Automatic annotation (TrEMBL), chain A:
Belongs to the ABC transporter superfamily. The keyword Repeat does not apply. Residues 16-247 form the ABC transporter domain. This is ABC transporter ATP-binding protein. It comes from Plastoroseomonas hellenica. InterPro entries: AAA+_ATPase, ABC_transporter-like_ATP-bd, ABC_transporter-like_CS, BCAA_Transport_ATP-bd_LivF, P-loop_NTPase.
Automatic annotation (TrEMBL), chain B:
The chain crosses the membrane at residues 6-29, 41-58, 64-83, 95-118, 138-158, 189-213, 219-248, 260-277. Keywords: Amino-acid transport, Cell membrane, Membrane, Transmembrane, Transmembrane helix, Transport. Its main location: membrane. This is Branched-chain amino acid ABC transporter permease. Belongs to the binding-protein-dependent transport system permease family. LivHM subfamily. Pfam families: BPD_transp_2. It is found in: Cell membrane.
Amino acid sequence: MTEGSAAGAHADKELLAVHALEAGYGKIGVLHGVTLRVAAGEVVALLGPNGAGKTTLLRTLSGLLPRTAGEVRFDGRDMRDAGPREAARAGLVHVVEGHRVFTQISVNDNLLLAGYDLPRGERAARVDEALSFFPEIAAKRLDRGGALSGGQQQMLAVAQGLVRRPRLLMLDEPSAGLSPVLVDRVLDVVTRLRAQGTAVLLVEQLIDKALAVSDRVYALAQGQVVLSASAAETDLHHRLERAYFGA
Amino acid sequence: MILGQVVLNGFLVGAVYALFSSGLTLIWGMMNVVNFAHGDFVMIAMYVAFVVFTALHLGPAVFVPLAAVLLFLLGVLVYFSLVRHVMRGPMLAQILGTFGLALVLRYATLWVFSANFVSLPDNLLGPVVTVAGLRLEPSRVVAGLAALTLTIGLHLLLTRTALGSRLLAVAEDRNAAMLVGIRPDPMQALAWGIGAACTGVAGALIALFFYISPTVGESLALIAFVVVCLGGFGSVPGALVAGLLIGVIESLSAFWIGPANKDVVVFILFLAVLWFRPQGLLGKA
């Protein structure tokens, strides 16, 4: 399933391939044939107005929501009927919107839980590795998840994802509810992940901040991809606007 | 001194209340399902104790663990055959589902054992000992202390172990738990198993000094609901404190205003607490 020549750069290797994906809630269809790709080590921004289906797409890819039609391949594997457990184990990790952490248990336990199926020694190493991205919460290891601030909870949610050492990390609006400084801190992690070869699919409302850390961009509107472009393209804002409004 | 005796007896019964109520609060907190058959689980465990004692002449060292295992299996079975399905339906389906189960268990027991009240011999664990003026009935002391230990053990299981973290994770956010690879189904089945095993132990223990009948579950279920509401939904420490409190209040009111009226006092206090602290004594707002 790899595209490009064998001699091509690491970044050309196809990691996620979604073709004509349809999904929704009950009888209400939300995704109407989404097709997109993410290459290994690439950061892709997924933009779009509210209700476009961004969150539904992530939920379908991570197996929380069953798909009704279409294909999903991850790292060459057929993921059409994979549940959340299989997706997470394959390295397709989803950090949900709204900094959802387990509030009743400690920061450390939150992270241990994220890697609960790993061998003990490996798990401890992964937790330290994930915390190395976020010194702020490393200092609060023994605090309850519920005692952290919103920004710290978002960091913990991302760190939980990192414990699984993802090949593709899907972040759903990590900036939601955070101060600008914290948004930069979280998005800075995206850049660091990219540098170490982890691909990121980033759903964001803050278009400029998202574009600054991304290689490519897709825009979703009414359950379909309406724009696919390089993040470096000029005039992207106008193209996005036109794509959203179907002009 | 007699007051000390009354408080002690209430405390020991209260510990058993706390244990079976912990099972109810665990299931309630885990998946927002109210198990109306909870009291009847306790009743089944009492009959396990009765049958093991009368048919096999074996004591609590056998029938308490056996009741725990049997009720654990019953809890898992009920989860997979009933609860998992009614959870997808409306709230009314859950209520009627477990209420129906309660009736099935109650009338099946009535059919097999008839409506007669039975009990285990008073001195099954030996004669009454008097220490510093307090009458210590071995059956009550053993039941109370065992229940107290197990309730604390359940709390430690939930808060100090990796398994407990997984149970709490599923309880708090099913989707987030699924995204780290936890399968909610086995965890919820386990919660039903553990919750029912609590009733198993509690039922077998309370059978040591309580009358046994097919309808005894009704009054015990009522106590469990009061304990869980007082202690806060999903809180095992809350259930422990509330269970002991109800035991002592019940015992004191039986002493002061007569055994027939003890429930009235409990329910009036219950209403008063709900009026001023609707989240329960230890519950979070």
